[in-house]
Write a structure and sequence with these properties.
- It is a single chain.
- This protein has a 4-stranded mixed beta sheet, covered by helices on one side.
- Helix 1 packs parallel to helix 3 and helix 3 runs antiparallel to helix 4.
- Strand 3 and strand 4 form a beta hairpin.
- The chain is globular and about 50 Å long.
- The protein is an alpha+beta fold.
């Protein structure tokens, strides 16, 4: 039984597609998201009550959710993939970076996309203020990330790994790339270098064809 990946175009499932390619693991794709009524919403809800994507079903039938957890698992299960560094100290830093993105950047994007879920305010001006404040903090988080995780030439070393893949995907949202181009141009160049890599380029072309 191959892996089964639940996701949709332009979503965080892109990072998992790249990771599975790095592991040379076949997988079945199922289009599913909370915002696509015609997608496999019922099946996704059964597997993941939060209805979040990506959701990955492993070959043994067990379910993994949370992008960082999925990437860490794949890196540990397929050590030759290069998803995680083999040396203990850089591997720990890569895991730190993955959790940083999940805890700080991904979380802020959820508020920016759905501000009504995070406040009792109901007026458009109030929701817009929350969205604007959240994006400002999100961009600050990315500045801290850029200052913390230097590339040589990638964040996981000579070849891109899980941390590079997740950073390249999540930084595409909520105006982050435009902000980083001004605030952290060297890091913005790193993200472009990741996108141009042979593993990443075809997946990004499928998810963001007009980019």
């Amino acid at each position: 039984m191959p892996y089964t990946l639940y996701g949709t175009q332009g979503s965080g499932s892109a990072a998992i597609e790249i990771a599975l390619a790095a592991c040379r693991q076949p997988f079945e794709q199922v289009t599913a998201s909370s915002w696509q009524p015609e997608s496999a919403q019922r099946e996704l809800t059964r597997l993941n009550p939060m209805r979040q994507i990506p959701t990955l079903v492993l070959p043994d039938g067990s379910v993994l959710t949370e992008s960082a957890a999925i990437l860490i698992h794949l890196g540990l299960a397929h050590p030759r993939s290069g998803l995680l560094p083999t040396a203990a100290v850089p591997r720990a830093q890569a895991i730190r970076g993955l959790v940083f993105i999940a805890a700080n950047c991904y979380a802020a994007i959820s508020i920016s996309d759905y501000p009504e879920r995070w406040t009792t305010a109901t007026t458009r001006p109030a929701l817009d203020k929350l969205r604007q404040g959240t994006r400002r903090q999100l961009h600050r988080h990315w500045e801290v990330f850029a200052d913390t995780f230097a590339a040589a030439p990638y964040m996981t070393g000579k070849t891109p790994g899980a941390l590079d893949f997740l950073a390249a995907v999540v930084s595409r949202w909520a105006g982050t790339r435009a902000h980083l181009a001004k605030a952290r141009p060297r890091f913005a160049a790193t993200l472009r270098r990741i996108e141009a890599h042979a593993l990443v380029k075809p997946v990004f072309a499928a998810h963001w064809p007009s980019a």
